[in-house]
Amino acid sequence: MDQFTPFLSATLNVFESHKQMTERAIAQVSDEGLRTALHEHTNSITVIMKHVAGNLISRWTDFLTTDGEKRDRNRDKEFVDTFATREELLAYWEQGWTTLFDSLKSLTPEDLEKTVYIRGDAHTVPLAIQRSLGHTCYHVGQIIQVARIQAGDEWNTLTIPRGQSEQFNKERWGEGKPGK
Predict the structure, then answer these.
(1) Buried b / exposed e across 16-52, counting CB within 10 Å, b at 16+?
(2) pLDDT, tens only, 123-136
(3) Can you say whether the dihedral through the CA atoms of 18, 21, 25, 26 is positive or negative?
(4) How confident is the model at residue 10 (pLDDT cuts 50, 70, 90)?
């Protein structure tokens, strides 16, 4: 049975969902809010997005043939806000995601058997994919949490609003959930 297609499809779906959720969250934040850290020892949304994009570019450029930590990557500079505008940030963000999606979509079933390297450590291709997914989702959660705080009372929830699960379930399934 072909296990590659459902694995790749599910992986792309989760990455795409998290990218979209991030973009819906930051759309609710002012330009100033994007650049404001909640504490001196935390990162602003802009900095976290810059780091995610930099990581995706490094990991997914020449994914199968070069170490995921590219020699020209300056990870420390990812934690310094250098963007003049929201548009510059979003262009870099998009570059990271395009690099990821293009690379994932180019993989073949045979590629799952290969070994890739990240900082000199060997990873199976599925492990490298899951590592990237975990890293990205971790930071997406940070971005959304900070966006929620920055947006304050103007926040529009990205999922089922608090206290509305029962209504959602009724709208989805009628009076009872499946399996009852």
Answers:
(1) eebbebbeebbebbeeebbbeeeeeeebbbbbbbbbb
(2) 999 999 999 999 99
(3) positive
(4) very high
